[in-house]
Amino acid sequence: MKISARNQLKGTIVDVIKGATTSHVRIDIGGGAIVTASITNESAEELKLAKGQPAMALIKASDVLVAVD
Question: What's the mean pLDDT in 20-40?
Answer without folding.
Answer: 96
